Amino acid sequence: MKLIIAIIKPAKLPEVRDALQAAGCKGMTITEVKGFGQQKSHDELYRGAPHHAEFLLKTRLDIAVQSEDADRIVSAIENAARTGNTGDGKVFVLSLEHAVRIRTGETNESAI
Ligand SMILES: Nc1ncnc2c1ncn2[C@@H]1O[C@H](COP(=O)(O)OP(=O)(O)OP(=O)(O)O)[C@@H](O)[C@H]1O
Ligand SMILES: [Mg+2]
Hints:
CATH class: Alpha Beta
Number of helices: 2
Structural class: alpha+beta
Strand order of the largest sheet: 2-3-1-4
Number of domains: 1
Largest sheet: 4 strands, antiparallel
Helix content: 10-25%
Bound molecules: adenosine-5'-triphosphate, magnesium ion
Order of helices and strands: EHEEHE
CATH topology: Alpha-Beta Plaits
CATH architecture: 2-Layer Sandwich
Distance between the termini: 9 Å
Radius of gyration: 17 Å
């Protein structure tokens, strides 16, 4: 199993959600987060020196998937979240060791 963590522009959440549902995604967790990337929210240097990093509002998605579905889900996120501008976000894919559906006690791929 894989855990997909995606950081996207908040305005792209409805499109990404629809793309994920169309791709057969069975569940996801959304969190409002703040962060910065390589521009540190600025496109320019200030008086020749880098600014302190400014945090921008982003939306984080956590999605547990079967390993064979990970590439397809990542592509769906990429295609739906891309504007082509800076700040479009990142996708991280981690190995997921264990999952449990609490109601039934099902584990791992049955629990996703
Ligand atoms: N290396 C990182 N580790 C953890 N989170 C990151 C990292 N890089 C970016 N993020 C998160 O993703 C958000 C969006 O990053 P962003 O898309 O601006 O990345 P970037 O590397 O600057 O790419 P771009 O040049 O396309 O803007 C950040 O606000 C932050 O929350
Ligand atoms: Mg950036």
